[in-house]
């Protein structure tokens, strides 16, 4: 935000969604006068700041990852970031490298560690023709599957398996944005069970 005398301008821009996916995301913020480029994972938004001034006077410090308790953020959220940042560059300086080598002077480093634990989950991306096939377990009376998923498509097959000896199949899919389970059994009178979320 810019402020001088009685003229006040505040600019707020949001971009991206579902960024808590354990992947690295790239953010670049560039300001030239009142023109701002905000790039998230190579998707750029261009906008102009409100107010009447082309210059930006930063205070005595800029913080990454949160604020000390003495800070006074303009937003309602006081939550500091939990996660990993790498390659923090500010006006051409690699801040993370300087902080690790204790070359930031003066600096206030609050309880940082310079390593990131990789997440235990390993995501897999499926396109229109890909699939993951694993061996079934014959002669088992228990079928248990669990997984997390995210998609922008309202329709798609999530899980499919034939029963042994041609007795039918089970499928789990997304149909018009709802999760559906279909159990087809060939040798009984009522041979189809459908469950939809």
Automatic annotation (TrEMBL):
Q: Which InterPro entries match?
A: ConA-like_dom_sf, Laminin_G, Neurexin-related_CASP
What residue stretches are annotated with the Laminin G domain? 1-116
Protein's recorded name: Contactin-associated protein-like 2
Can you name the source organism?
Tinamus guttatus
């Amino acid at each position: 935000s810019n402020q001088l005398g009685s003229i006040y301008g505040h600019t707020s821009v949001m971009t991206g969604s579902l960024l808590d996916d354990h992947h690295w995301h790239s953010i670049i913020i560039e300001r030239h006068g009142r023109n701002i480029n905000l790039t998230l994972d190579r998707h750029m938004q261009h906008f102009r700041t409100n107010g009447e001034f082309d210059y930006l006077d930063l205070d005595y410090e800029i913080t990454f990852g949160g604020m000390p308790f003495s800070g006074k953020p303009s937003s309602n959220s006081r939550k500091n970031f939990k996660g990993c940042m790498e390659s923090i560059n500010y006006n051409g300086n690699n801040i993370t490298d300087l902080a690790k080598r204790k070359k930031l002077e003066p600096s206030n480093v609050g309880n940082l560690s310079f390593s990131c634990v990789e997440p235990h989950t390993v995501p897999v991306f499926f396109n229109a023709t890909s699939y993951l096939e694993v061996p079934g377990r014959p002669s088992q009376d228990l079928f248990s599957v669990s997984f997390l998923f995210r998609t922008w498509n309202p329709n798609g097959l999530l899980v499919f398996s034939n029963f042994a000896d041609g007795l039918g199949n089970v499928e789990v899919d997304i149909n018009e944005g709802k999760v559906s389970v279909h159990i087809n059994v060939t040798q009984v009178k009522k041979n189809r069970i459908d469950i939809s979320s």
